[in-house]
Amino acid sequence: MKQKNEILIFNSFLLIVGLLFFSCSNKEAKKGKEEVQELYTVLGVEDTGINFNNKLQETTTMNGFYYEYFYNGGGVAVADFNNDGLQDVYFVSNLRTNKLFLNLGSLKFRNVSVAANAQGNGGFPTGVTVVDINNDGLKDIYILKSGRFENDEPLRNLLLINKGMNKDNIPVFEEDAKSYGLDLPHYSTQASFFDYDRDGDLDMFLVNHNIEMYGIEETAEIMAGRSDKIGEKLYRNDDGMFVNVTKEAGIISNDLGFGLGVAIGDVNNDGWPDVYVSNDYYEKDHLYLNNKNGTFTESSLDSFNHMSTFSMGNDIADINNDGLLDIISLDMMAEDNFTQKTSMSGMNVAQFYNIENLGLHRQYMYNALQINNGKFPNTNIPVFSDIAQLADISSTDWSWAPLLLDMDNDGYKDLFVSNGIKMDFRNNDFAIYLEEKYQEGMRSRKVDLAKYVDDLLDKLPERKKENYFYLNGGDLKFNKLAVNQTPTYSNGAAYADFDNDGDLDIIVNNTDDFAQLYRNNQSKNAFLKIALKGPDKNIDGIGARIEVNANKKTFYAENYFSRGFQSAMASPIHFGLGDINKIDSVKVVWPDGQYQILTNIKANQEIIIQYAPEGKVRFEKDKPDYAFQEITEDYGINFKHEENDYNDFSLESLMPHKMSQFGPCITVADVNKDGLEDFYIGGAMGQSGVLYVQTTGNKFEGKPMESFELDKNQEDTGAIFLDADGDGDQDLYVVSGGNEKEAGNLFYMDRFYENDGKGKFIRNNNAIPKILGSGQVVKTLDYDRDGNLDLFIGSRLQPQNYGYPSKSLLLRNVSTNGNIAFEDVTDLAFPDLNDFGMVTDALWVDLDNDQYEELIITQEWGNIQAFSFKNNKFHNISEPFGFNNNVGWWFSLAAADIDYDGDMDLIAGNLGLNYKYKASEQEPFHLYLNDFDKNNTNDIVLGYHEGGQMYPLRGRECSSGQMPFIKKKFQTYEDFGKASLREVYGEGLDNARHLAATNFASCILINEDNRHFSFTPLPNSVQISSVNKILTMQNDGVKNTDLIFFGNLYGSEVETPRNDASYGHYLKGLGNGVFNIIPAKESGLYVQGDVRGASYIDLGKNNKKGLLVARNNEPLLLYQIHFKN
C-alpha cells in the first residue's frame, strides 16, 4: 500500500514549491520438455515489419508522479479490418500516434496508419476495443483515454468508423464518436460492447479510474463521492445513441474506483451476460449479475471468499471444461524472493481489517484464479474458489494482461501473462529515499523542480520481466512454459491465428521497446475456428455461447472481444481439439436465447455460422434430487457460533495463523433415551454451548442448561458423549481450548457433565483431573479392555507460545458404583504424550487385523503417529507402518476399508496444496523457534526454499517489528532481500526448536498387508483447501465407501490468502478405491465457511440420514442426505 503514500508525499511537496500541475485432467499425456521449449518463438521487427514502440519519455511535468497510471502502457486490438481473411493489429501509443498494421500473410505486416487515418488525435490513450458499431460488416475501433489535463478535449474517447477499403485495400477510418454519444471525457481504461438487455443491439460497459491518491483514513469519504469521469459506467444503446443508465442499472460508480479490467460472460448460466470489473487499490473487484430486467446486482461478497488487492487485467473462460465460466484477475506479487522482499511492503493488519469492515472484501496481493462451482441452491448467485496457489500462477510479478487461450490445441485453456513496469514505485528502498527527499524539501522550501524530479526518476529502479506462459495440466494445475525471450515492460496483449496455420499467436504492446509477436509452433493437435454472422443489429454475434461436442468431450467459449488488459481480439473463436478429427456437433446459443446446431464437422478448418435459429434454449433449474439438501430452518435449528474478537498476532506477530478460533465442536447421541438422536454444539468464549433435543415432530429444540451457562466463558473446541458409568445414559466431556489466556489459566479447564438419565446435564467436578491445557481432541477408547470407556485428550497448543508441544493425556476410567471417575495414567501408560506435539485429531482403529485397536494421532508440524498398547504401555509403531516420512499440518483422520481387501485404510486431511506455504521432502517448509533477539520472548521464524537456498518467509518490515536487530543488521531492503535465512539469523538457528514440513497434501493411506501404509494424494479438486473433517459412509450391499470432506482455515496471517476455497467435497465410491468426484452443482453440497465440526445424525425414528456441519463464527447447518447406490 506504500505506493499511495509515495504519491501523496510527492503531491504534498508540489504544493510546497507552488507548482501548478501541467495539463496535458488430466491430459492424455504430459507435454514433453522438447515441445514445451519450442512452442513459441519471439519474432522481432526484422521478422514481422512491426516497428511500433510505445515510447514513454518522462518530463518534469509528465511522469508517474503526476499521473499515477503513466506507466500502465497501451493496449492492442486484433481484427480483420480489411476483410481479407488475415488478422490485423492496432496499437495504442500513450504519447505518440497510434498505429495500424495490416497483415500481409506469412507473419509480415505493413504500417498503414496514415493512409488509414487511424493515428488518433493525441491526449493520453490507454485502452482499445473493437466493435462493428453500425453493423456494416466492417470492424470499427473504439479508443479510450485518460491523463491529467486542464480541459476535457484531450480526454475524449475516439470512435474510428471503418468506411471501407481504398484502392490499395487499406481500410480508411473516420472519427465519429460524438454521433453515438461515445466521445466521453473520462479517465478511461477499457470498454466492452455487449447486449446486456437482450434487445438485439450492443450496449457498452466502461471502466474508468480515479487520478487522485488517497489514504485508508479517507476511504469511507471517497466511497461516498461520485464523478462523471470516475467509476464504472453502463451505456444503453437507444437506436444508435449510447445513453448513460449507470445509476438505474445498479452499477457502482464511486470515486473509489480504479478500474483496470472488464470482462463479460454468463457466469451463472442463465442466458444473460454478467460483468466482472477488476479494481486497483482499496475498491473491491465487482461481479455484476444480470437481473434480466435492465438492472444488475453486485455479488462479489457472496460469490468470492477473497480477491486480489491491486487487480489489473482480467479474463473469463472455462479452464476445466465443466461448462462454467471461471475468472482470472492479476495482481503484482513477485515470484522470486528478492523482488518480494524489496518491492512488497508488509501488509498492515489493522488496515486489512479496516478494508474488510468497509465492505471492500478480503484482499490479498496475489493473482486470483476463481473457479466457478455453480450456483448456491435456489439462488442465481454463482460461488467461486480461488485456486491460484494450487495452480502455481499466483505470483507473476507486476502483471497486466491475463489471456486464457489454448496454446497447444489440446482442448484446455492455457494462460499468458504480460508483465513488467518501467519504474518500480513500490520499491521499498525508493520509498525511504522519497520520504527523505520530501523532508529535505520541507526544510529547505526552495527546490529546483526539474532537478528534483530527474533525481527521483533516476533513483527509481526498473522492473523488466519476461512474460509468463502456462500450460493447463487439466487437473487444476498449470505448468510454466519456458520461452526464449528477453525481459520487457509488456502491457496490452492479444491473440489470434495471424498466419492461419490453426494455432494461436500472441502480440504484445511493450513500453520503450518494439512490440513482440510470439509465433506459435504447435503442429500436433487439431483445431476448429468459428466465425459468427449474427442478426442485423449484432452482426458479429457478440455474446453468443458456443459448445463443441466431440468424442464425449465438450468445449465451451463465449464471444466477447474485450479481454485481458486494455486490449481486444475480434478474431474467430478458436477451439483446440487434441487428437479429435471429427466434431459431433456445434451448438450456438445466440445472445437472444435462440440456438442452432450443426453436426458432423471436420476438424482443422474455419467455419462460418450464420444466424438461423432452430428454437429457444431452456436453461436448467436447480436439481430437485440433490444428494445434500439443507433443512436447518425446517428443523428449527437457529444456533450461530459467535467467535470472540481476539487478535493472536498482537502477542505473536509472526505466527502463521491464529490458534484461537478452532471451535465449535459437535457431538451426537440420544441423551434422553427416546430413540431419537440429539446433539451438543459448543460455544465460543462468552457463549454457552447448547444441547438440541430431537422431537417427534421433525424438529430440534434447544434445551437451556444451567451448567452450560455457568461455563460459557470457556471456549468449547472438543466434545464427546459417552456412557462413563455404565448406567445406560450418555454423559458429556467438553474440551476447553483457545489462545486468549496465558498457560495454566482456569479458562482452559476441561469439563465433565453427568447426565441425570433424563437429558439434564450437571457438571461433575470430581469426575476428571484438573486439566488446564488448551485442547481440541477427546476420543473414547477401551485401551485396557476392561469394558470401561477410557479417554484420550489431545492438547492443541501451548497457549501464547506457538510451535511448542503441550501435554496430552490418557485418562483411565475407574468409575465404580455409579461414581464417575477418571485418573491420569499418562506418565505410567503413555509417557510419549507428555511432550508430543500440536494434536489435531485422533482415531482408535485396528491397523493390523490383530483384533486390538491402535491409537492414531495427527498433529500440526508433525507426522501421523500410531501407538499400540502392549505390556501395559503404549509403544510408538509409526516407523514400521511407514508414517514417519510425511511431516505436515495434518488436521483430520478417518478410517475405512477403501479398497475392500479386508483391512482398514486411513484418510488424512492436511493443509492442502492451495496455500502460500509449499513443502516437499526436497524443499521442506521450516519453523524455527528461539529467542533470537535475546529479550526473553519466543520468536517465530518461518523459512522456505528457492533456487537451492533457504530464505525467511516474512519480510524486513514485519520481522523487525518482532526482532528489531534485523533492521539494524540490514540497513536496506535490498540487503535483506539478498540475505539467506542463515545470514539473517545466524547461530540462533543452531539451538532453535526446528520443525520442517515435507507434505501438505491430504492423502489416502492404503494398508498393504497389515504391515505398511502407502500415501496417495487425493485429487487436486480436494487439495484446494485444508481438510478439517472427514466422514465416511459405507453403502449397504455395495462394495464401496463414500467420502465427505470439510475444511478451510480462516485464521491465516494477513499476508497469506486464507484457506477458503472448499465448499465441501463429496467423493462417491465406485469400488476398489476408485472414486467419482461429484461437483457441488450436482450434489448440492455448498458449505461455505471455516468448518470445525461435522457429524452424521439420524433424523426421526425411520433413520433418515442427516448431516450436521459446525462452522466457526457462522450458523450451524443441517443437511438431509439422499445417498444413491
Question: What is the CA-CA span between the terminal residues?
Answer: 54 Å
Structural class: mainly beta
Q: Give the amount of beta strand, in percent.
A: 35-45%
Oligomeric state as shown: single chain
The average pLDDT is: 94
Overall radius of gyration: 31 Å
Largest sheet properties: 6 strands, mixed
Number of helices: 19
Indicate the percent of residues in helices. 10-25%
User: Order of strands across the widest beta sheet?
Assistant: 5-4-3-2-35-34
Globally, the shape reads globular
Q: How many E strands?
A: 73
Question: Could you name the ranges where pLDDT drops below 50 across 5 or more consecutive residues?
Answer: 1-37
Please provide a written account of the structure:
The chain is mainly beta and 1125 residues long. The protein is built from 19 helices and 73 strands. A six-stranded mixed β-sheet has the order 5-4-3-2-35-34. The chain has a five-stranded antiparallel β-sheet with strand order 33-32-37-38-40, with no helix packed on it. Strands 54, 55, 56, 57 and 58 form a five-stranded antiparallel β-sheet that branches. The protein is globular, with a radius of gyration of 31 Å. The two termini are 54 Å apart.
